[in-house]
Amino acid sequence: MATEKRVKRRKVLINKLKHKYRLVFFNDNTFEEVWHLRLSLMNVLSVVGTISLLLIMVVILLMAFTPLREFIPGYPDESMRRTIVANALKLDSLQEKLRVQEQYFSNLNAMISGEVPPQYETSSADTTKKKFGKLNLSKSKRDSMMRLHVEEEEKYNFSLDNGAQTENNISKMHFFTPIKGLITDRYNAKINHFGVDIVGQPNEVIKATLDGTVTMASWTLETGYVIQIQHVNNIISVYKHNANLLQKVGNHVKAGDAIAIIGNSGELTTGPHLHFELWYNGKPLNPEDFILFN
Fold first, then answer.
1. Where does the pLDDT of residue 34 fall: very low under 50, low under 70, confident under 90, or very high at 90 and above?
2. Which of 28, 94, 179, 271 maximizes the CB count within 10 A of its CB?
3. pLDDT of amino acid 21
4. What's the pLDDT at 57?
5. What Cα–Cα distance (Å) separates residue 3 from each residue in 12, 13, 17, 260, 270?
6. Would you say 229 and 215 are in contact if contact means Cβ atoms under 8 Å apart?
7. Which CATH architecture has domain 177-289?
8. pLDDT tens-digit series, residues 124-168
9. How far is CA 89 from CA 35, 96, 221, in A?
10. Domain ranges for the chain
11. How far is CA 172 from CA 163, 167, 169, 291, in A?
């Protein structure tokens, strides 16, 4: 009995939804019918549902692919996202420094206690107590033959290396391009701008222009992270405003080796770029006379 009542109620509800209604607009003065519309509750619900779904989809697309999402309360804008990334990098660096500091104190505590720090422990046998017999350090027959062979080959070899050939003419030397990019400020000795400014890709690696030895790798207030390399023939190359240095003082580098990351450090900078200088016998040179940057 209860089931039959439910079926009847459902049928009545469906019939009510299917009932047709007329929406009529009359002229208020002449009572003439201007426009009418026949509809049912089911049609109204379908139209309203479809329109609502379309509006929701449009709002979602606008929020997902346009800057309008930044107006949502609590959603981070571009500057906030950059701050979040920078803070995450700083936090990672601090965690690494904290780990190193904890390891240092752990090693120091072990040394004070008379123990051997973990990183100095080794499972290899102590070879200092091993007794060796009398060592024969005389030249072997094979070694003597090799020496004679090399001396014979080099006896009439008058070839000179690249540095000697170009001692007085560095224009013949091959300079590796430190970074490819757009030159925004050219060499101008009259205004004490002794290099060129090159804008490259973000986080691009800067490379050594010639073989040489790193003589400076430090930070200055005006030019930020600076690295300087001494080359043959008294040539010096300087790389300024870096974000990070990849080489230390005393390191020997080859032409094309990575030495730094392009950056925007120091007070005398207006954006991420490389300030590159070439010096020969203590005098500045125009790098564009020797290197193509684009």
1. confident
2. 179
3. 78
4. 92
5. 14, 15, 21, 82, 81
6. yes
7. Distorted Sandwich (2.70)
8. 444 445 555 565 656 667 777 777 777 666 655 544 444 444 445
9. 67, 11, 22
10. 2-65, 76-117, 177-289
11. 10, 10, 6, 12
